[in-house]
Amino acid sequence: MNSSLIMLEISVIGLGLVLMLADLFVPAERRRFIGYAAIVALGVLLVTSLSGNGSCGQFDTAFGGMFVNDALSLFFKQLFIVAAILVLFMAAEFSDKLAEGSVAEYYSLILFALAGMLFAASSNDFTMLFVSIELITITFYVLVSFQRGKIQSLEAGVKYLILGALSSAFMVFGIALIWGTTGELNFTRLAAVAPQFADSQIFLLGVLLVLVGLGFKIAAFPFQIWAPDVYQGAPTPTTAFLAIGSKAAGFVLLLRVLFTAVPGVTAHWANLLIVISAITILYGNLCAIPQRNLKRLLGYSSIAHAGYLLLGVAALSASGQSALMYYLAGYVFTVMAAFFVITLVMRHLATEDISGLAGLNQRSPLLAATLTLAMVSLAGIPPLAGFFGKFLLLKAVIEAAQTSHNHGYYCLAFTALAGVIISLYYYFGVIRAIYWSKSPEDVSPIVLSSPAKFSIGACLAGMLWIGVFPNTVLNLTNLAAAALGK
Amino acid sequence: MSILTYIAGWPLLAALLLVLVPRNYRVIIRAIAVLATLISAVLAVKMFAQFVPGANGFQFEQQIPWVESLGISYHVGVDGLNVGLILMGAIVAFAAALCSWEIQTREKEFYILLLVMTGGILGAFASLDVFFFYFLHELALVPTFIMIGVWGRGEKKNYATFQITLYLSIGALIALIGLIALYLKSGANTFDIPKIIEHAKANPLSVNAQNFIFPLLLFGFGILVSLWPFHSWAPLGYGVAPSPTAMLHAGVLKKFGLYGLIRIALPLLPQAAQSWAHVIAWLCVGNILYVGWVAMRQKDLNLLIGNSSVAHMGFIFLGIASLNLIGVTGAILIMVAHGFLAALTFALSGYIYKQTGTLQISELGGLCRKLPFIGTALLMAAMAGCGLPGFANFFGEATVFFGAWTTFPAVTVIALWGALVIGGIYMTRAIRNILHGPLPEKWASLADATNAWRKLPYALLLASLLLFGFVPKLLTEKINPDARKIVALATVENKTGVVIATRSSGRESAPNLLAENQRRLASVATK
């Protein structure tokens, strides 16, 4: 057994514990800096994981095949760490809205959720899958309801708790059925025996129930119902982490289950995936149209994006998986940029209504431009990351249509396009509110701290870089997709 | 670096530069925009002059790999098909930047969008890579919506913005599906157009695949070009658009779909093109006759111009549908000529609107007395619009009719009606009501364009129309060899009904070709 493989995860958990302890010794007015220390530490971990000598660079399995390090887990781990760094920056800006003296706890909870995501990226076993999902979800129950004084935050926490517990129950039941029929929990070994059970209704029901649990994590139809409420009620950094980290963790587990554990079953479920993807896209986009609350709007938009990402799963091909991962990489920077602006602008306002953006281009041209570019990228307009990502996803779907002769894929491609066109309406609505609504009386400039400027710059650079020079990321995602196909 | 990169790059660079200029430096903002488009236009003229007609392959080529794993590269180059379009686009963009003095609010954003649009269009025409071809078009398309939505005029602004966004996004995305399907079906594993064509010569696409992809491209591109019955966005959209936007969109960006059909659909999907040709030809009748009819009933000058511009698209589609050398050459000629013409008419109507605040034909009258320069230019534009010899449009339309006669005689007869009679009626009627007759009291204080800068865009566009009207050889000698190659590819396996013998190489010297073409034109004409 090679426990050195989980050094990264151990360091992240250790860092979380250190932050909690640091809370005892650091005076209250300096606690914001605990976050910056955590950012630096995560940055070091990211560099070591990138360098190839780090623990995630060694491609091997540990704990009897439960834990695997490969190109796929490496890609997702980097993605999670980048997301966590940006969320920590955001949390530092948000800290004055959190309860007195609880900032360090918030930081360490983010790190524990991150540890869960890192384990999810490497899980190769249903036990590991369940444990990592629970580590993420339970941490998020706390993160969502962290603003104890705010009724919406508590309400969101309760909703997330009830629906999350329900979906966990489904998932455990599904895992139990799979184990009961096949006697295997390990993905690799399950793949070897699964074909014998291809006709077993109980086994198929088990796989379906696991998908239900994962569908809840990624907010795919019909398990999306929690997303808008929770996005709206949760503290903004939590919402951002939920939109990126939790969703990406759901997708990496979905990829592992569908393409490593039960590829034979997946091949027969193309139509199911097509239908789910199509409905998710339409539901998210159509429901986003009447929204006035910016976070709620992004909640619906994140449902729509779960649908777009499912295009890559439904295509059942390496190019689809690679497109999905590329899209996620662009999505991290885009969504982080959007939530960052919301954090900074809405900080001093009681409302999160879109009208609060009025006059933003006079108050802070940088924030106005950032939010505009984020919306443009989400809508899929060149030259930002969203355009090339959608292009790759569409290409994968049409490729699937041509190789499988399943006309459902063409319908899916047209549905996705319909979704893109619908989404132009509400994304441009946000841009319009920034530049062309009546200016409010308060046009005082928004002062940005230098860490905030730095992280916004990083988001912008990421969006543009991934969109204009897709080569680097695309090579990584191709490798990751190849690892999945093995 | 290829001169084409500079032509498309300067406006984009200037757009970036404008982001940094504070918004109250109005003169500097305007100067940067005008200068950048001027540089593009000068470079385009230089490129046009240096272009060697009939040279083999592409000229001013440049290729930089972008995403190797998918075979996407930044690849620009010109041949006879796009050399005229790039020249026209750059000149129209310069004229549009000059005409933008009418924009008084939020100038900075307007000029940034205008420059992005310019760079996008010119880049799209220069692209020889399917991905960049689409990507740059999309880059130019989105600013159009924003410009119409924000700086548009009239009560129907929101509705028109909504409609144009919906139509054009749907069109562009349908075309995108077609292009991706084409890339995957071709099996060449590259987005490079010349390479795909080369690959398709040895491994042509199956007829089934062609028949699936061609309609996607035809209707996707067709919506972008306002092919009947998908044209209803155009007149209204142009009616409310600020005039620089209408100039660039109606003049240049709209030609993207037509160019895409000629550059990509004809050579790669020949069998489907042949079987769909009659559908295109009959849809043109809708453009020419029906929309011409609608134009006759218009009471608003901009709606009239918008409808007439939709009607003109019909001639281009007819030229493409004829699938022969004369028809395709004529189609490209009209694309260039109509670009200048549409830009000129929208610029003039914009000037009149700025002065009078209305474009209702019934409220105008006798304007030629107060606006001699603008009035004369409008008169000439109207004459060019109904196809008077001496303007570039005449030569293009005549060529298309000669080309189409051999394949679609019935459609040609109807189209001639539309061009000569209907076009003549609405244009002369509009001229009489706007420029002649008694001058209403309220217009006594109108001011003509006196300043040389104000006159320049109109003069430039008129001069271009006249230049290519009197010396069409400048264009035909360049278009001819490459149109011949495209037609040769498009008429594979089906030479019935096409009288022109196809020849594979275009190395013959230009004068010979031209003479031959004229002989052929004459012989068809006497038939």
List the helices and strands and how they pair.
The complex is a heterodimer of chains A (486) and B (527).
Chain A: H1 7-25, H2 32-51, E1 60-62, E2 67-69, H3 71-94, H4 103-122, H5 126-144, H6 151-182, H7 187-193, H8 201-218, H9 227-233, H10 236-261, H11 263-268, H12 270-288, H13 294-314, H14 318-346, H15 360-363, H16 365-379, H17 385-404, H18 408-436, H19 450-468, H20 471-485
Antiparallel strand pairs in A: 1-2
Chain B: H1 3-20, H2 26-50, E1 59-67, E2 72-78, H3 80-99, H4 107-126, H5 130-151, H6 157-186, H7 193-202, H8 207-224, H9 233-240, H10 243-253, H11 255-268, H12 270-296, H13 301-322, H14 325-356, H15 367-370, H16 372-385, H17 392-407, H18 409-435, H19 452-470, H20 473-490, H21 510-526
Antiparallel strand pairs in B: 1-2
Helix pairs in contact in B: 1-2, 1-4, 2-3, 2-4, 3-4, 3-10, 3-14, 3-19, 3-20, 4-5, 4-10, 5-6, 6-8, 6-9, 7-11, 8-11, 8-12, 9-10, 9-13, 10-14, 11-14, 11-20, 12-13, 12-18, 13-14, 13-17, 13-18, 14-16, 14-17, 14-19, 14-20, 16-18, 16-19, 17-18, 17-19, 20-21
Task: Explain what you see.
The complex is a heterodimer of chains A (486) and B (527). Chain A is an all-alpha fold and 486 residues long. Helices cover 76% and strands 1% of the residues of chain A. Chain A has 20 helices and two strands. In chain A, helix 3 crosses helix 20 (471-485). Helices cover 74% and strands 3% of the residues of chain B. Chain B has 21 helices and two strands. Chain B has one domain. By secondary structure, chain B is mainly alpha-helical. Chain B has a two-stranded antiparallel ribbon. Classes of the chains: A mainly alpha (486), B mainly alpha (527). At the A-B interface, helix 17, helix 18 and helix 20 of A face helix 5 and helix 6 of B.
